[in-house]
Design a protein that fits this description.
463 residues; DNAb Helicase, Chain A; Rossmann fold; 9-stranded mixed β-sheet; 18 helices; 9 strands; elongated; disordered C terminus
């Protein structure tokens, strides 16, 4: 098994040199504790040194001897010869962090080997379905990778310097995150912030997928930034057709029925040409678990250096053997937030709202954050929650029920994006222009002037 005897001796020798080294080793080994050491004698001495440190006792030879004698380890470990050998292995505790890092890396490798053995034993057991074995394998491997040493506390002086650099950059560019393509939304949020979980929620057919695609399309096509879009509801071909029609401003319903014009085809061909080098990745795998999604996102990030991940939609994911749907959604929510933090990119997840906005006893149809389906964990984990609302959706629905057909509503093309939670900024309401025939949202322009299709800047770096 992977081990480094010299590094382990150096760590313990450094800890014998002073209490400051003990605190640094505890911080680096974290939850591994004594198990980070491959040799039992080293494990036992480490526990004694940590115990003395916690009790605020000195770590000189006399105190250590008394504790080892009390635990019946003094003669077993080798008395003063054992301690002297460790002390002589390093001249000082100056490089204790380096030695502790080596010990922890060897521990992770041993953990990885044990995990792969357990996975192999599970795979050889023919009683379990392959899907469950794969899910178990991912849990085992991620259990090891998520224990890697991460960042540490920083002094305020360094943080203040970094904050000032950020403020200076804001003077040059108001956006500190990824641009959404919607002016009012970017003004309110300063862009989609790295490391944040962003929830876009709405009732069915409200336009959640369209809004998510519009933002992903802006990032990938207009800004040439690699984006991964998980589509758990639509196939990749359906998604591609929707992007083509939305981008070219061609009526998708007419296209499906074969009622498109030559002008429509010319627009579609122009857009298709622009999309050949677009860094928009689409994964339409259905029935994804949160672990599978995180694994796929990590692989794509390593290969393409993703700038954002989109999930459509959250409640279609699952967690095997979950106690309840509430626990399942809470696990998915935590997993998406962890993904955003690990990759330091925004994760935008579409989500369904419950039926409360349609309740007749409720005053108005505008959604609230509490309408998020199945779990309050979404409200807790999300950094930003935006609720999509179109009043014409409910008016046309009521008129349809009465057999009158859709009404001539002057606000039919208006949509509201209600930012009901923003952890690091203000909340507010944003007006968008909804174009039903193109299944597309645009910036709101009084007068309803429809923007023309503008090809992306070909001078930017291709995918």
């Amino acid at each position: 098994m992977p081990q480094d005897l010299a590094a382990e001796r150096a760590v313990l020798g450094s800890m014998l040199h002073g209490k400051e080294a003990v605190s640094e080793v505890i911080a680096i080994l974290r939850d591994a504790g004594r198990e980070a050491f491959a040799f039992e004698s080293h494990q036992q001495l480490y526990e004694v040194l940590v115990k003395l440190y916690i009790e605020d006792q000195p770590t000189d030879g006399v105190v250590i001897k008394d504790e080892l004698v009390r635990q019946g380890l003094w003669e077993k470990l080798g008395k003063f010869d054992f301690l002297a050998r460790l002390l002589s292995s390093v001249p000082s505790a100056l490089r204790v962090r380096h030695y502790a890092g080596i010990v922890y890396e060897k521990h992770l490798l041993r953990q990885l080997i044990r995990s792969t053995h357990r996975v192999m034993e599970t795979a050889l057991d023919n009683d379990q379905p392959a899907r469950e074995v794969l899910d178990y394998a991912e849990k085992e491997i991620f259990g090891v990778t998520e224990r890697r040493v991460t960042g540490e506390a920083q002094p305020l002086s360094e943080l203040v310097e970094e904050a000032f650099r950020t403020i200076e950059r804001r003077g040059e560019n108001a956006l500190t995150g990824e641009p959404s393509g919607f002016v009012e939304l970017d003004d309110l949020t300063c862009g989609l912030q790295p490391g944040e979980l962003i929830i876009v929620a709405g009732r069915p057919s409200m336009g959640k997928t369209a809004l998510g695609l519009n933002i992903a399309e802006h990032l990938a096509i207009d800004k040439r930034r690699p984006v991964l879009f998980f589509s758990l509801e639509m196939s990749r071909l359906q998604l591609a057709q929707r992007i083509l029609c939305s981008r070219a401003r061609v009526n998708s319903h007419a296209l499906r029925r074969g009622r498109h014009t030559d002008q429509d085809m010319a627009r579609l061909q122009a857009v298709a040409h622009d999309l050949t080098t677009t860094p928009l990745l689409v994964d339409d795998t259905s029935d994804l678990t949160i672990l599978e999604l995180r694994a796929r996102a990590r692989m794509a990030y390593r290969r393409y250096q993703l700038r954002a991940v989109f999930v459509d939609y959250l409640q279609l994911m699952r967690v095997p053997k979950s106690e309840s749907r509430q626990v399942e959604v809470a696990t998915i929510s935590r997993g998406l937030k962890a993904l955003a933090k690990d990759l330091n990119i925004p994760v935008v997840a579409m989500a369904q709202l419950n039926r409360s906005p349609e309740d007749k006893s409720r005053r108005g149809n505008r959604p609230r954050m509490s309408d998020l389906r199945e779990s309050g964990a979404l409200e807790q984990d999300a950094d930003l929650i935006a609720l999509l609302h179109r009043e014409s959706y409910y008016k046309s629905k009521d008129a349809g029920d009465a057999g009158e057909g859709p009404p001539a509503d002057p606000d039919e093309n208006l949509a509201e994006l209600i930012v009901d939670k923003q952890r690091n900024g203000p909340v507010g309401k944003i007006i968008l222009h909804w174009n039903r025939q193109y299944t597309r949202f645009d910036n709101h322009m009084p007068g309803g002037v429809e923007p023309e299709y503008v090809p992306p800047d070909s001078s930017q770096t291709p995918f």
